[in-house]
TrEMBL record:
Pfam families: DUF6545. It comes from Streptomyces mutabilis. Residues 256-390 form the DUF6545 domain. This is DUF6545 domain-containing protein. Keywords: Membrane, Transmembrane, Transmembrane helix. InterPro entries: DUF6545 (IPR046675), MAB_1171c-like (IPR050039). The chain crosses the membrane at residues 6-27, 71-89, 110-131, 151-175, 187-210, 230-252.
Amino acid sequence: MFVSFLSYVIAGVMTGVAVWRLPAVIYGDAHRRSLWACYAGFAAALWLKSPSVKTWLNGSAIVDLSILAKHYVSILAILAICTFVVTNYGTSDQGEVPRHVAVSRWVTRVGTQTAAGALVVMTVLFFTAVHREQPSIDFMVDHRGQWGASAYMTVFYVYLGSASAICGYQWASAYRRADTRLLRTGLLMMTVAMGIGVAYVLCRVSFIWSAFVVDYDYDVATDFAQTTDLMQIILFFLFAIGASVPTTNTAASRLSARRALYRLYPLWRDLMTAFPDRTFSPPASRWREVTRLSTPGDVRLDRWVADIGDAVETLRHYAPPMLLPVAERVAAESEDARSTAEALWIRASLRAVTAGERRQQASAGLPSKPFTDTESESSWLLRVQDAYASITDEQAQVLLDTAKELTPA
């Protein structure tokens, strides 16, 4: 019962990771897409192994269909992870080809053909040699000591064990060359996961063939199956977490960019509404803008910062020359005088835009700042937005009127 519960948990974890990495299918390169395919494939295999899905599939016309479907999907997922390994480690700029690169190139040559061959052999054995009079509760336990089922499972386990050994070797080699702690941690976890995978295969194959000479009691066989199932659950957990650890910084940057977009939205929306030609499309709702997946968050943040900069430059044709000095005087007593002054200037200038008070001669621009990247500029704009949110239209209008009065005719 506990193992069944864990199978649902790890299936949910793998599904969550696959969904999280879904943008890699659109924006990623070949090795990111292959890693996503591996997550998606193993997630599907884990759901096929879960008790509820297995029971539903086994009620079909094909007895033990869940077993065949699970192994099909697993082999495709294994092929995807082998492709990921090949695209990561199959090239080298060195004159002499390193061993790990040579191994990757060997995997490239034989991987696909081996997978296709395994699928064909397993299919033939499943429909011709495996005794399937009634659905299995546990396929390995219920078919222990049967030649057809033993041959079928051995083909699958040999492919699984070989792929686990190759991936483990590559990740252990990469662990020694890794230059960051996060990357080393992730590679170590994946290497350990593949080591467990090899041990899992050895245990299962040993049980399958020893069952011809040892008459295992049903309860003993069930306990053994659940123990090895727990090994597999630990394997998938380590693999899911290990492959995600190196992307922690990337995930944090993406989350930070989305948060910045959410906070910056009111300022960006007001400026883009005033100058719709400064953006590719009219502003949508706040949540719609923040959750768009068509463009990565950091790219959109960079675009918004540029949009705001262009709009602020256009505001110079609406701001009276004395508006900035008046705004600085009003903001002098605030906690963040510089950002408050700019927020007042923007808010009052937008009132002039609404009134259609465009001036032929542009007023002086806002003080320049030594920004070195989008992150620093967006941080400044967030300070401006915080002050901007506290300014009312009435305050902005009073400020604009005062500046117009002080501006020489």
